[in-house]
Specification:
391 residues, alpha/beta, 6-stranded parallel β-sheet, 21% strand, binds nicotinamide-adenine-dinucleotide, binds zinc ion
Length: 391
Amino acid sequence: MKAICWEAPTKVKVETVPDPTILNPRDAIVKVTSAALCGSDLHLYDGYVPTMMPGDIIGHEFMGEVVEVGREITNLKVGDKVVVPFTISCGKCYYCQTEQWSLCDNSNPHAAMMETMYGYAGAGIYGYSHLLGGYAGSQAQFTRVPFADVGPIKVPEEIPDDKLLFLSDSLCTGWHAALNCNIKPGDTVAVWGAGGIGLFCALSAYLQGAEQVIVIDRYPERLEMAAKHTNAKTLNYSEVNVTEALKELTGGRGPDACIDAVGMEAHGFGLPGVYDKVKQTLRLETDRIHAVREAIQACRKGGTVSIPGVYAGFADKFPIGALFGKGLTIKTGQTHVQRYLKPLLAMIVEGKLDPSFPITHHMKLDQAEEAYEMFKHKHDNCVRAVFNPNS
Ligand code: NAD
Ligand code: ZN
């Protein structure tokens, strides 16, 4: 089959690789019909996630058709149309039993590596480095799905892929990040980043009852998308002082919750921006935390900072004083996708939610290099590119 493989930082290649096969009785093989290119893939592409190896198949946000099932799989049959959560979860450990799916104790075969770095290991993730399990990813014609009795959700044939695909990651991630804000009537939620994740954070914040949502980015087309599809107010950080503008929009008090939907490659400016860029380039820090700093600074006293943006290691100049002094709550982590699949699918089926709006491009696998370069540099107004590997 054909698959997009990571070769080296900023180098991906379409290769012919062996088809995946059933390895365990709880596996399924899915023929991938749609696989998105997510902001998390850029962290791999840019070389900021350790333990990637040349030839690793990347991609984690996907859906498709079941073409083979292991002997213990009774919930799915060949021909079913499924969306697959990007986190792999066994369904049986303490964390799965308590619905903390992305913290599964059994799905990361390389747990020891992560334990050394973090103390304990989280779940395995498709196509996301050997640290996170070394699983083959989904930007391929076929993917092996472990624990297929727990992860994939059957979806209606008649609903097009574009409306369902983001259940696999982005939509659930936005929903989860907004839930982490514990939104109450009258609340203002500010969202840093207007990529797929930030857009779904903003949409979710409204659906969960926020009175005012403010999205911050510097790309006008992304801010326009936020205004049009999520009803958010927008701030272009290359034009205004964000903390001052947020103060003004909240009667001087600051947002009740701030969401960092940017992650470890935040665009920085001023002295802290230069400092982060230099330190990350020299590998003296792994993560650029510009958006987190700004979110902590802007948040009202006693508020919540929700961080769906991905971070990998260590960062400097973390404003622990402001965090402490204002009594803030921080919530973060990989999304517990399985928690939200059914309720969000129901909203899509009922027509209350159409999450296809961030899709700007459909691509063939052969266009991998072009797609990654376009998405990295946000050329051609790209917000979400979707590969259709079998068409
Ligand atoms: P994206 O690259 O499409 O969007 C990121 C946006 O952040 C861009 O529009 C960029 O202009 C903006 N940005 C950069 N610096 C900024 C700054 N200083 N202030 C405001 N905006 C800034 O990526 P995406 O797909 O939207 O993903 C966003 C983050 O969410 C990534 O870190 C990704 O890894 C993460 N993510 C997390 C989970 C999870 O489970 N927690 C799941 C999926 C993605
Ligand atoms: Zn993702």
